[in-house]
Amino acid sequence: MSEQQGEQGGPVVAQEIGPWVVEMQWPEGVTQGGPAVLLVRPKDEEDSPLGGISSTVLREIDFKAAVERLRAKVTISEMRAQVREQYEEGRTERLRQALAQGVTDEYLAMLASAYLSYLSGGGKGPLTHLAERVGKSESTIKGHLWQARKRELLTGAPGRAGGALTRKAAEILIRVVPGGERMSIVDVAAETSQEKTTEEE
Question: Where are the beta strands (DSSP E) in 80-171?
């Protein structure tokens, strides 16, 4: 049994029944009752089973197990969201504390990491977001990101959104961020890499 996010935003739980895959989708936020959408398709889409879908296949769909898997998926998703929220709260506090020591490489590496993480999560208006977190103006944050690039902590051209952390920045984060010692430089850089060509806003 596997799961994914449906095209319409609701969670999907899949079951394999012989040569068939049954996908069940619930509306967003619903974890009671049966699915709103049911899709039965061949496991091998280039080789449909002879005779097509039978009533036997439909009777073998385990709706109870699918609902249990759906609820587990929702619980895990909520736990991850809570962990992310707590991490972001901690990141904000670390940024403010680091800035209180001045515009150091440590602060700029953390700012660059927060900036790229926000972009990679689909965030819009990164300067506004960071300004609110750090407690500074957008122009100040823009200047700090420029300094991060100048000090070779963040790649990319000034005035353009995105880029990637440099090895130098990754080494700083491994040293100063809680749990960073358990991550490799490659992991840190990959987690926050976000290449874009739009202008920073």
Answer: 160-163
Asked if 113 and 165 count as a contact pair (C-beta separation under 8 A), the reply is yes
Provide the whole-model pTM. 0.55
Rounded to an integer, what distance in angstroms lies between the CA atom of residue 94 and that of residue 82?
18
Q: If residue 77 lies in a helix (H) or strand (E), which one and from where to where?
A: helix 63-100
> Cα–Cα distance between 31 and 115 in angstroms, integer?
35
Nearest to 1 by CA among 14, 11, 12: 14
How many angstroms separate the CA atoms of 95 and 106, rounded?
9
Mean pLDDT for 29-58 is 88
Residue 156 has a pLDDT of 82
What span, in angstroms and rounded, lies between the C-alpha atoms of 64 and 50?
28
Taking the domains of the chain in order of start, what are their residue ranges?
2-76, 101-199
Number of H helices, E strands in the chain: 7, 6
Nearest Cα to Cα of residue 28 among 83, 73, 65: 73
Interatomic CA distance for residues 68 and 20, integer angstroms: 21
Residues for the chain: how many in total?
Answer: 201
- According to DSSP, residue 181 is labeled G
How many angstroms separate the CA atoms of 59 and 91, rounded? Answer: 50
Rounded mean pLDDT, 112-136: 90
